Amino acid sequence: MGDCVFFGYELLPKKRYATTPPEGYVLRISQAALAKPCEENKRVQVFCFVDGQKYVICSLIGLRVEHASLDLIFEGQKQVEFFVNGNTPVHLTGYYNKID
User: Fold this and answer.
1) Which of 45, 63, 64, 81 could be bridged to 85 by S-S, CB 3.0 to 4.6 A?
2) Which H, E and C letters describe the chain, residue by residue?
3) What are the φ/ψ torsions at residue 16 (nearest 5 degrees)?
4) Distance between CA atoms of residues 37 and 7, nearest Å
């Protein structure tokens, strides 16, 4: 794996997605965006689960807030899960970054 490698998930509603950054890397999440049009004012929340704790990382709202810039860093060799609450898929993007 190179020093910086793209990461992307299409998070479907009501399904958990897990990833564990490889040894020597961290996962940096930089954006969440609605993957398709969403009804006006309908809210879609994106959560992460780390160490058994649940956190809201962003709320997206149809025709008002359709993407969010993020700056989240997750440690290597530690599982993180993502989940969408709502009816619209979300693209979650970022990259794996090698630790010096």
Assistant:
1) 45
2) CCCEEEEEEEECCCCCEEECCCCCEEEEEEEEEECCCCCCCCEEEEEEEECCEEEEEEEEECCCECEEEEEEEECCCCCEEEEEECCCCEEEEEEEEECC
3) -85, 140
4) 22
Q: Which residue pairs, CB below 8 angstroms and at least 24 apart, start in 35-43?
A: 35/10, 35/88, 35/89, 35/90, 35/91, 36/88, 36/89, 37/62, 37/88, 38/62, 38/63, 38/66, 38/86, 38/87, 38/88, 39/63, 40/64, 42/86, 42/87, 42/88, 43/86
At position 17, the amino acid (one-letter code) is Y
Q: Tell me the pTM.
A: 0.93
Residue 84 tokens, joined: 């969408």
> Does position 54 have pLDDT exceeding 90, yes or no?
yes
pLDDT by residue (tens digit) across 3-41?
999 999 999 999 999 999 999 999 999 999 999 999 999
